[in-house]
Design brief:
Shape: globular
Largest sheet: 8 strands, mixed
Number of strands: 8
Distance between the termini: 32 Å
């Protein structure tokens, strides 16, 4: 099913997913606070890409992609407002990466072990249907990934089952196997996968890998 996709954020993740959703035939609007960034994006991605503010992208969308820095995620969601997000699926790609240098290749988080950024976002906009996804791989591999070991696994979680089913279908279209790990509290385990994924990159400049769940 082709849908209207609103992307919040114009960094590498936002750009990669904008290109991916357009490639799969969806309508896409990307939102930013910076008009100059939006003009440049339309030049580089294509004139079929619609642009606007965060609120305009959220209002346009049937499905919203949150693709800002983790430190800006709550502010972005609060700025859009719970009423504007009510009933909408919000795919949360963010991780709680602190503004501090890695320690021996391990990113520092601003959350504790018994909390997650996804839980904070769900509390900020309780009427939205948040689903964590695309947070444990680099942007070059988010759409149409190719690895020698076959299709990689993207772990997802969230409170709304229908929203997770919708996200799982999108992931399959993008070349992923989706594995539902439960409610928002599961993000306490999924967000640290970002730390694990980044260690080979930060230590050895190896960024071409992904996770795969093997079952008996």
């Amino acid at each position: 099913m082709k849908q209207r996709i609103g992307i919040i954020g114009t960094g590498d993740v936002g750009k990669a997913l904008a290109k991916g959703f357009l490639r799969h035939g969806h309508q896409v609007m990307i939102g930013s606070r910076n008009a100059d960034k939006l003009a440049a994006l339309r030049s580089s991605i294509g004139q079929e890409l619609a642009t606007g503010t965060f609120k305009e992208a959220a209002g346009f969308a049937e499905i919203i992609i949150l693709a800002v820095k983790g430190t800006a995620a709550k502010e972005a969601i609060a700025g859009i407002g719970d009423a504007a997000l009510a009933g909408k699926v919000v795919i949360d790609t963010t991780n709680p990466i602190a503004d501090a240098p890695p320690v021996n290749g391990v990113l520092q988080f601003f959350t504790g072990r018994n909390e997650s950024l996804l839980e904070q976002l769900q509390q900020t906009a309780p009427s939205a249907h948040f689903v964590k996804a695309w947070n444990s791989v680099g942007s070059p591999h988010m759409d149409d990934p190719h690895f020698a070991g076959g299709r990689p696994t993207m772990f997802i979680c969230g409170n709304d089952q229908s929203a997770k089913s919708m996200v799982a279908a999108i992931l399959r279209d993008f070349g992923w196997d989706a594995e539902d790990m439960g409610a928002v509290e599961s993000a306490r385990a999924l967000e640290p996968l970002c730390q694990l994924w980044c260690i080979p990159g930060l230590r050895s400049n190896q960024w071409s890998h992904a996770f795969k769940l093997l079952k008996a």
